[in-house]
From TrEMBL:
Keywords: DNA-binding, Transcription, Transcription regulation. This is Transcriptional regulator LacI/GalR-like sensor domain-containing protein. CDD domains: PBP1_LacI_sugar_binding-like (cd06267). GO terms for molecular function: DNA-binding transcription factor activity; transcription cis-regulatory region binding.
Length: 169
């Protein structure tokens, strides 16, 4: 979204007790820092990886004064993004003209919602396999303190547009 010209980018977190959610928050903050964009705590919305959490985030965004609203929002996972998109449309927002939205995970539904959800693709099958292996190791009392990193890529769909094409300009 930074490459699309957005500078006021909200972030809907995942549960604070999950390492993966905290790593994504760190990635968001690093991306802002690397782009020279100051972190704004007012654009951080607590979430919980659910559609209901996304709907609650939409209510928070809609409650902001027009001048304080972000032009884009990154949801910590696709489920949250789906709830966010659904509730914002219910409230009369046009997507992506009023706000660009990006998720994380590239769930199959991401290409079926309207507009299609721009999202960060991660190999969910590989992620699940690694998780199962860790559980099996723990059940066998084997220690496996490693953290695995999986490659990601951005899948661009219709939920994001350049800043100059939004109503926030």
């Amino acid at each position: 979204m930074i490459s699309l010209g957005h500078r006021r980018i909200a972030f809907v977190t995942g549960p604070q007790n999950l390492t993966v959610a905290n790593l994504r928050l760190q990635g968001y903050r690093k991306a802002l820092t690397d782009a020279g964009i100051p972190f704004d705590d007012a654009l951080l919305i607590r979430g919980n990886f659910t559609q209901a959490g996304g709907k609650q985030a939409a209510e928070i965004l809609a409650g902001l004064p027009q001048e304080a609203r972000p032009s884009a929002v990154f949801a910590c996972n696709d489920e949250t993004a789906f709830g966010l998109m659904y509730r914002l449309r219910e409230l009369g927002w046009q997507l992506p003209e009023d706000i660009s939205i990006c998720g994380f995970g590239d769930l199959p539904m991401a290409q079926m919602v309207t507009p299609g959800l721009t999202t960060v693709h991660i190999a969910l099958r590989e992620l699940g396999r690694a998780g199962a292996q860790k559980i099996l190791a723990q059940l066998q009392n084997k220690q496996d303190p490693t953290h695995e990193m999986f490659p990601t890529s951005v899948v661009k769909r219709g939920s994001t547009i350049p800043l100059e094409h939004t109503s926030n300009v």
